[in-house]
């Protein structure tokens, strides 16, 4: 092993547990989660792509949400599964920084695409007469570009700050992936700038979408309360409920992990919180949007009936 205070060339990921008896059950559990995530998100992507009546702004953003969920789950889960079946789950320094960059890129992109979806629902419910003109293909494309630009900016800010650090000879990372806070614990140099960037950038990446979503749904709720018919209110609530559930799961677990001082959040609790938004949320999103969405159910039935008939 290299001398103390020298930069390392690889890291060892500790994984979720050090208890041998739990490794195989956890391997099959998270393998099952990953299979459901891949099938659910790719299925939703295929369904939206093949059904022309789903080619609307709402499903344009849902298509990209499924793509993002599939990608960032794929960035994390396969390497996590390796920790259950290998004695040492080694990842090269370059591989670790690459995983960190793409994880942050997709997770920040998800936070902003959820806010774009909230804005879309606000226009659909509060200004339905101008919905088609307001949410034109050009506007949707610009919103999506903004989503990925923010994802790239957030990932670059964190990764650039991380690569300037020198890591000690103790290269055991107490996590199942290369995440910001566990890597900072392995640094031999000052992490003050990195911690400042975490609070500022994560504050923006969670704060701006949260405020956008909160304002959108406050206006939506006001508009819904002015709807006289019970059927109209029920339809409006049904339209938004799936998105509210997805937003609550994602931002709740993300804020718990990154906006609390590390001294108040033991790493084991941090792992559980990370598991929630890296593994559970990408698996649940396609189920939430398909099981609670009438249009998706109809499109699925039509696709299945065509396949059966052919």
TrEMBL record:
Gene3D superfamilies: Rhodopsin 7-helix transmembrane proteins. Pfam families: 7tm_4. The chain crosses the membrane at residues 26-47, 59-78, 90-119, 139-157, 196-224, 236-259, 274-291. Keywords: Cell membrane, G-protein coupled receptor, Glycoprotein, Membrane, Olfaction, Receptor, Sensory transduction, Transducer, Transmembrane, Transmembrane helix. It is a multi-pass membrane protein. Residues 40-289 form the G-protein coupled receptors family 1 profile domain. GO terms for cellular component: plasma membrane. It is found in: Cell membrane. InterPro entries: GPCR_Rhodpsn, GPCR_Rhodpsn_7TM, Olfact_rcpt. GO terms for molecular function: G protein-coupled receptor activity; olfactory receptor activity. SUPFAM superfamilies: Family A G protein-coupled receptor-like. Belongs to the G-protein coupled receptor 1 family. Putative odorant or sperm cell receptor. This is Olfactory receptor. It comes from Panthera leo.
